[in-house]
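2024-03-11 09:14:02 DEBUG pipeline.ingest accepted 1 chain
2024-03-11 09:14:02 DEBUG pipeline.ingest length=91
2024-03-11 09:14:03 DEBUG pipeline.predict start
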Amino acid sequence: MKTNKLQTEFLNAVSFVNDYNDPLPADFLLNLYAYYKIANENSQSPGSKTPLINAFKANALIQAKNITPEEAMEKYIEMVEEIKNKIKKGL
């Protein structure tokens, strides 16, 4: 996938998640968090005031640490497409 197209699709996927109001599964959101941080090459530590949330976020980042920013964007887009399909089916 070409970089400009990938970035556009990634930003569209991010917008969908940001605008979506219904609850999403925690594991889904943690994976998206990790992929988003990697895609944006953001190496700052999780900044939640809750230590347990920081631990879950750090764990998600550790699990995804060996992928490139482009791979992270692709995985983020794939996950959002999967959830969109589930939403359309009413699951």
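2024-03-11 09:14:41 DEBUG pipeline.report The mean pLDDT is 94.
2024-03-11 09:14:41 DEBUG pipeline.predict end
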